[in-house]
Design brief:
The chain is an alpha+beta fold and 690 residues long. A hairpin with a 2-residue loop joins strand 17 and strand 18.
């Protein structure tokens, strides 16, 4: 979705926030072992995933999400046959935050591994272990490791009963009753719980439900993507009305209804019906996309991330641009318009419908590229593509329906419309330059997906600068295209647009200057990621910041410097965390706060470095599920759950040096102003009370 909003408008920041989130477990697993004959078995782990959540595939590129790992072992010994297979509702798409192609599953996923016992005549305990991460569009949960056990009896039948599960000899925890703060994990033997005791992992003062102040809370805002797309479609429809294919038809069509009928009331009613049919026709154009989505639910993800299709879209947008420049016209076959026009003779409502259809067909040479840009933007970045396409096309048709309907109601307004002329071709050429710029977005995505990384961020900016300069030169009459007047009139409107073009060039140039923080925030969804740059160095850290990666170490520094601590529960594979860092942390009024007023503890819940063996443990999750705590990431995930009853990332908590929660923690990707409100509240409270 982000691509569409930034490409078509650059007028907004996607706004969603969550606060006071609770422990989430959106995936339920069921483990079975089944016989497949010839003394062979198959370990089958089925995950049922809640709506709007997903689990990553086992096959992900490095430095992206956390790939799922599924292992099958047995202390009696088994021989694995082939590799782990996975099936389910698959999504394959390009991630802007990771700069890589990622695969994940929603709704349901099944992992399978075939094996053969070394001694098929004897019973054996089969152990399956899965390490996975779940995410939605707002947050990612900490990586989770679960273990399952089933016994096979040595016959051709798999046994899957709780009674046959051999209990582990390791330290075991039981899940405490839901809703108990700070007691999510209840040890059965407190003398053998090294992680629970280490450094006071459960800090009693970290009571997130009773913070020192309640300021800085942010309200969750609704997801209004559909209405935004409707508005963008409406704007596109208004622009299309100004093109030479459509604008001259407005007075002719309205006059037909208001003057060509002796019954003025009937004429106006027919005009409104005409407008309704225009809206209906555009909405009907979206129906095939719903059918396609019903056949293959991930087809639009495949389209948006396919290298060759992105190159195809790049070529199509170039084709659109040259059409707008006037080198040729894009038209539908003439027989389509002829048949539709002939059907108008039927009269009545049917005749009006075909009049509307004829208008849509004959204006295609101007509306086609605009609709193509709109629809291409939707497919490139959205998840619920068919619905968004309906809203986009509906908004486009609504603009036309309202214009024709209102002018039929107030025909005297026709006198106020500007006369047709060369200015309409100027509109087309300006749209051509915009199409040319947007074409580069598809070329960039193909470059990123293929990992060629030839179109660096700075090169992309240079190309946009050249396109903007070309537009400015055209607006001031220094170059002209086939349908321009030989001596074009440089109107006030063209001059104003030219000045805006110069300002935009100046804005783009700053993106070529190396800086410790990202620039060109308005274009962050269009430009290649920050790490695809001639100046990027992985050693620079996050925006030049040097966070501590151990909470207790950060607390000691905070005591010395008398500053509050921002606990940043994050992950290397957390896409929403990267979005917060690039789009929010980097802002001019946020970054200084992070640099000067806080000690940052960025603890990674997916750090795979193992803990010392005596600090590793298992947690009994019930229903045969055993969760392992064996890595540093597991430890910080446990720390987050025990102290804050939360397992989502990003998750932000402000605490004092004596480890008291200052204000209500916040989670997920959020607008800059909400994050700033959260930070300022905690910092100001701390300064005023210390």
């Amino acid at each position: 979705m982000k691509d569409l909003k930034l490409v078509l408008s650059t007028l907004f920041i996607f706004i969603i926030t969550i606060f006071n989130a609770q422990i989430k477990n959106p995936v339920k697993f069921k483990f079975d072992v089944v016989s497949v004959g010839n003394d062979q078995y198959e370990a089958v782990l089925t995950g049922t995933i809640e709506d709007k959540w997903h689990i990553y595939s086992k096959d992900l590129p490095p430095d992206s999400g956390i790939p799922t790992e599924f292992k099958v072992t047995s202390k009696e010994g088994i021989q694995l046959i082939g590799k782990v297979t996975e099936v389910g509702k698959k999504h394959d798409e390009f991630s802007e935050a990771f700069g890589a192609q990622i695969v994940y599953y929603s709704d349901k996923v099944v992992f399978k591994q075939k094996f053969k016992p070394k001694d098929a005549s004897k019973p054996a305990t089969i152990t399956a272990e899965i390490m996975y991460q779940t995410c939605n569009d707002r947050v990612c949960l900490a990586p989770n490791t679960l273990e399952f056990e089933k016994q096979i009896t040595g016959t051709a039948t798999a046994v899957a009963t709780e009674e046959n599960v051999e209990k582990t000899k390791d330290t075991v925890y039981e899940v405490a009753p839901a809703g108990q703060v700070g007691t999510i994990l209840k040890p059965t033997n407190i003398e053998q719980t090294p992680v629970a005791k280490q450094d006071g992992l459960r800090v009693n003062s970290l009571d997130f439900k009773n913070p020192l102040t309640d300021c800085g809370t942010v309200a969750q805002k609704p997801n209004d993507d559909n209405w935004l797309v409707l508005g963008l479609g409406f704007l596109g429809g208004l622009i299309a009305l100004l093109t030479p294919c459509v604008f001259p038809m407005i007075p002719l069509t309205v006059s037909f209804f208001t003057k060509g009928n002796k019954d003025k009331a009937k004429g106006k009613r027919d005009a409104f019906i005409y407008g309704f049919f225009i809206l209906l026709i555009f909405v009907l154009l979206s129906i095939p996309f719903h059918i396609i989505d019903g056949i293959s639910g991930n087809i639009f993800n495949q389209i948006s991330t396919n290298i060759w299709l992105n190159l195809f879209f790049f070529a199509i947008f170039l084709f659109f641009a040259l059409s707008f420049f006037g080198y040729y016209e894009i038209t539908l076959p003439s027989w389509i318009a002829n048949k539709s026009s002939k059907a108008e003779e039927a009269g009545g409502i049917i005749g009006i419908f075909f009049m509307a259809l004829t208008l849509v067909i004959v204006s295609f040479s101007c509306t086609g590229p605009i609709l193509g840009s709109l629809l291409g933007g939707v497919v490139a970045g959205a998840t619920n593509v068919p619905t968004l396409l309906t809203f986009a096309l509906g908004g486009f048709g609504l603009a036309w329906a309202l214009v024709f309907g209102l002018l039929a109601l107030f025909p005297q307004a026709l006198q106020s419309l500007p006369k047709s002329g060369g200015w309409m071709n100027t509109v087309k050429v300006v749209l051509g330059f915009i199409e040319l710029a947007l074409a580069l977005k598809f070329l960039s995505k193909a470059d990123l997906v293929s990992k060629t990384f030839l179109l660096k961020r700075e090169l992309f900016i240079v190309l946009w600068i050249l396109i903007a300069i070309g537009l400015v030169v055209y607006l001031f009459g220094k170059i002209r295209f086939p349908h321009d007047d030989k001596k074009p009139n440089i109107s006030l409107g063209r001059r104003i647009l030219g000045v805006f073009g110069i300002v935009f060039v100046a804005y783009l140039i700053q993106g070529l200057i190396p800086s410790e923080k990202p620039k060109l925030q308005m274009l962050s969804g269009i430009l290649p990621p920050l790490n695809v740059s001639y100046f990027h160095d992985e050693k620079d850290g996050i925006l030049g910041l040097k966070p501590y990666h151990n909470y207790f170490e950060a607390i000691e520094v905070a005591k010395r410097e008398n500053k509050p601590v921002l606990i940043d529960f994050t992950g290397y594979g957390c896409e929403n965390c990267r979005k917060m860092e690039e789009f929010v942390w980097s802002q001019d009024d946020i970054l200084p706060i992070l640099q000067n007023d806080l000690i940052i503890a960025s603890v990674y819940v997916d750090d795979k470095e193992e803990l010392p063996e005596n600090e590793q443990l298992k947690i009994d999750m019930g229903e045969g599920q055993m969760k392992k705590i064996k890595t540093i990431g597991d430890k910080w995930s446990l720390f987050q759950q025990v102290n804050f009853n939360n397992n989502s990332q990003p998750h932000y908590v402000l605490v004092t040096p004596d480890q008291k929660v200052i204000n209500i923690p916040v989670s997920g990707y959020m607008p800059k102003e909400d994050f700033k409100k959260f930070l300022k509240c905690g910092i100001d409270f701390y300064k005023n009370n210390n």
